[in-house]
Amino acid sequence: xxxxxxxxxxxxxxxxxxxxxxxxxxxxxxxxxxxxxxxxxxxxxxxxxxxxxxxxxxxxxxxxxxxxxxxxxxxxxxxxxxxxxxxxxxxxxxxxxxxxxxxxxxxxxxxxxxxxxxxxxxxxxxxxxxxxxxxxxxxxxxxxxxxxxxxxxxxxxxxxxxxxxxxxxxxxxxxxxxxxxxxxxxxxxxxxxxxxxxxxxxxxxxxxxxxxxxxxxxxxxxxxxxxxxxxxxxxxxxxxxxxxxxxxxxxxxxxxxxxxxxxxxxxxxxxxxxxxxxxxxxxxxxxxxxxxxxxxxxxxxxxxxxxxxxxxxxxxxxxxxxxxxxxxxxxxxxxxxxxxxxxxxxxxx
Amino acid sequence: xxxxxxxxxxxxxxxxxxxxxxxxxxxxxxxxxxxxxxxxxxxxxxxxxxxxxxxxxxxxxxxxxxxxxxxxxxxxxxxxxxxxxxxxxxxxxxxxxxxxxxxxxxxxxxxxxxxxxxxxxxxxxxxxxxxxxxxxxxxxxxxxxxxxxxxxxxxxxxxxxxxxxxxxxxxxxxxxxxxxxxxxxxxxxxxxxxxxxxxxxxxxxxxxxxxxxxxxxxxxxxxxxxxxxxxxxxxxxxxxxxxxxxxxxxxxxxxxxxxxxxxxxxxxxxxxxxxxxxxxxxxxxxxxxxxxxxxxxxxxxxxxxxxxxxxxxxxxxxxxxxxxxxxxxxxxxxxxxxxxxxxxxxxxxxxxxxxxxxxxxxxxxxxxxxxxxxxxxxxxxxxxxxxxxxxxxxxxxxxxxxxxxxxxxxxxxxxxxxxxxxxxxxxxxxxxxxxxxxxxxxxxxxxxxxxxxxxxxxxxxxxxxxxxxxxxxxxxxxxxxxxxxxxxxxxxxxxxxxxxx
Amino acid sequence: xxxxxxxxxxxxxxxxxxxxxxxxxxxxxxxxxxxxxxxxxxxxxxxxxxxxxxxxxxxxxxxxxxxxxxxxxxxxxxxxxxxxxxxxxxxxxxxxxxxxxxxxxxxxxxxxxxxxxxxxxxxxxxxxxxxxxxxxxxxxxxxxxxxxxxxxxxxxxxxxxxxxxxxxxxxxxxxxxxxxxxxxxxxxxxxxxxxxxxxxxxxxxxxxxxxxxxxxxxxxxxxxxxxxxxxxxxxxxxxxxxxxxxxxxxxxxxxxxxxxxxxxxxxxxxxxxxxxxxxxxxxxxxxxxxxxxxxxxxxxxxxxxxxxxxxxxxxxxxxxxxxxxxxx
Lengths: 349, 501, 328
What we know:
The complex is a heterotrimer.
Chain A: H1 2-27, E1 32-36, H2 43-59, E2 62-66, H3 74-86, E3 91-94, H4 99-111, E4 116-119, E5 131-136, H5 139-154, E6 164-168, H6 175-193, E7 199-202, E8 216-221, H7 228-239, E9 244-249, H8 252-263, E10 276-280, H9 284-291, E11 297-301, H10 303-318, E12 326-327, E13 330-333
Parallel strand pairs in A: 1-2, 1-3, 3-4, 4-5, 5-12, 6-8, 6-9, 7-8, 9-10, 10-11
Antiparallel strand pairs in A: 11-13
Chain B: E1 6-15, E2 18-28, E3 33-37, H1 44-51, E4 59-64, E5 67-68, H2 74-80, E6 82-85, H3 97-101, E7 108-109, E8 113-114, H4 116-130, H5 145-158, E9 163-167, H6 175-190, E10 194-198, H7 202-208, E11 211-216, E12 219-225, H8 231-239, E13 259-268, E14 272-280, E15 284-288, H9 295-303, E16 310-315, E17 318-320, H10 325-330, E18 333-336, H11 340-344, H12 351-355, E19 364-365, E20 368-369, H13 371-384, H14 401-414, E21 419-423, H15 431-446, E22 450-454, H16 458-464, E23 467-472, E24 475-481, H17 487-494
Parallel strand pairs in B: 3-10, 3-11, 6-9, 9-10, 15-22, 15-23, 18-21, 21-22
Antiparallel strand pairs in B: 1-2, 1-4, 4-5, 7-8, 11-12, 13-14, 13-16, 16-17, 19-20, 23-24
Helix pairs in contact in B: 13-14
Chain C: H1 2-32, H2 39-64, H3 72-90, H4 94-117, H5 123-141, E1 147-148, H6 171-189, H7 191-201, H8 203-208, H9 213-239, E2 241-242, H10 250-260, H11 272-291, H12 296-327
Antiparallel strand pairs in C: 1-2
Helix pairs in contact in C: 1-11, 2-6, 2-7, 2-9, 2-10, 2-11, 3-4, 3-5, 3-9, 4-5, 4-9, 6-7, 7-9, 10-11, 10-12
């Protein structure tokens, strides 16, 4: 009996506090922006946060940056979006883990007249008018860039036998990763075709092109679960194929998988004079691999710009200005320009 | 006369408001076998749990070997040489015989390194001394219950026990095993070990004990010398009044009564072997036998709870395919489990919810239950069966054993079952409530219900049955009409083993 | 005497089946998988077995007592994060950090042990809570950043040699075997093991036999935690960067390995060697399935079927064993 009373009074107290703080929030004149990222694990998001915080300072808005613990936590992210809406901020920036799962929340935001800005991969497929604008890397273009650079390096090897090009992709569901993979595949296919050869794309039904026995094979490996062991295994299956001449990892996870898999092979398979490796994003292991010229180079997005631009768009939206989507750009970096002023700030350990 | 090694005086014990012991006394001499008797709930177990350090007393004194005793844990009791051989065997089934005996006092090197060779050898020596032929390395779970009990007794002896408490030691033993146990007890007696013997079996008490202490309702009633007393006297002390358990002399079923259930060659290896019998309308058919004779297994197979290997069942002359309890219920069979709390009632549901459990369909439409009708019918049966409960909304957990049993009976009557299988109908029910259950069963039979009654109490079998079937080791070893039946005849059939017969 | 022979036959049979399955799997992948039968692939199988192996060995003790430890996956990650953060930010020497990793695992185990044995929480609930606590602690300690251990080229890269040398020699398999032997001895030759089985067999009887059940139950959970810490070191050495918030799911993989190895979730029965084999069956599947060019979702499906099959086999076998016993 006493216990229930205690719990009841605690609940009452909690409600009072909630109401008080809620009131406090509305009385301040500073506008607020809720930013929901895909996660906190990868340092990529740290850089995004840095950009967002900077924009918040520059433009005088309050930034609340949140994200689920892991990139598999779709449900947790949807909850975060709902919580953000309930706080009634002036704008919301979302990088959705799963676009369909987030659609309800996005519609709810619209119903509450809260403008939604997409960043990073945004919320693709959201109905017309629900998303104000996106601040994101054009991932398809970024994938093309990786293909272009790789093609330049392997052009000479394409004629010897029937070579294979490997692709490690973290998953096939996320829009941003799929687009990087797709951009890479399309560009590479076209580039090779322009030399008069045929191309087979195999490995995962989503990307396969149905051509068999092409002059060049592009082989896509996707791990069954997103963890280091499975990632490494997928990369290693590719590396163990003798006809492999090049390998591409379409995000930090995939690049790490390639590096770890290579370390587990006696003597190593990748290197500029062996299997040509191209990565995406950065991270301690990948930067190390580029410096040691194990990786030819990688494509990096501009996470700081993504964060900054997203908040910028949010401010525009709350001021009622119109805006188009912004491509925050991507850069190619190698051992030679890794320490330059243009690249260095974009990389994270 | 020597002084007792144990003297427990005016022991009281309370469990959150319930007085389990009000004023319990017991004294024990070295080399004595002392019976402790009383109805269920009389406080025997509680008293023994206090003596073995499992519970702590609230009041009273214990003197052991002339010194006051204050036990705080089972380990302390063991170290003093006070050991209990539990009714439900307390064994680590997956460990070996020797490992079980030496659990908690392993032979060690360097403080943690086990020396199993040494305990195996010590066990072998111990067994040799006691004339037990069991391999010390055998896994306990693979032994028969009787053998397990011997190991437990050997364990007690290995503690240099001064007092050994036997809690219903023969409940699960075969005749030969009982004889072996009694030899062991006689041997221990000579060695000066004091033994407390808890049992319901009067013949055993007469045979091996020196004195009998009787308890009732948590109180000490009295102590008598076994040879100066009679069974009736002890029973009188136990129940506080004279009860007559006169056997039935004549079957109340007419010869031309319809056969409602016919079981042919039912086998469920290894529990039931080739069992055939029939049950007539209005008959109470007693199933007698020792524990493990296969009676419960046979009942469960008929009820569809377990799948038999072969055999056929006919109900009203028609072949019945019963492969699940659902089928059995549909065929008008109701089963009242020996383990009411586990299989008979859902203790956390109310009386009314339990009462309509098998027949809920009758009291619901489109999935909605008709609470008013349920309330009505369950109240009606509470009244009919004289179930003592403040209301039909009372949780079954709060009812006494006898009243729980009535709820189970109500359950099957509401379902309109014709064949009722009572498995140990009065186990855990006190004497007063017992006779009510008996009356009820007789009334049911008169109403035309047919009853199979499995009972391990011979007096109960002889008092209730119109006909008696005796089983031993899975086989039906005999069938007796009530007028030819007596305890000796039943026991002979119940111990008629395959190899012997 | 016949009884004893029968016993050896049935008990030996079970391990033989598991070992046989492992060998058959390996041969099958070698035949049907392109480039599967290489030293490098074998080393990868080892790599994938170290951390799961340590987790599984530790949790085997808990499972034999009839308990469960769901926290080992995140405790492993959390311990590694704590160690890595101390190394990177506090500048402690690496060897000390590695010891701390094991100790942090032990502390979580102690927490589990106290909750289960003294506070009488059901193991499932207690360790589920710890699973989340450890995940949270890891995120807090690392400030939700990934923790990078020194790379092989770095001055402190020596710790990687514990599990794999620069020229790809799998030293880790010897470390795993060494700890397996230690665990086998603990379980079969020491008091800890005896009480582990006793508690799993019949806890109340063990208590009534005067054994300090609370103490030994706690010890078993501490052991599981220490092994999770050890797994943290193996994980750091193999994968270099540790992400906070990760680790969930590894406990189930480890438990699957334990179960495939013939340890009963109802307690009282189990063996470390079985767990060792079970973990390798899981690893060979994990590494081998991509080599036969199966799509990822089929790999997960097949792994699931193997786990269910193994448990069914075990139930069937013990049932049969019992009926043989009763007939004889």
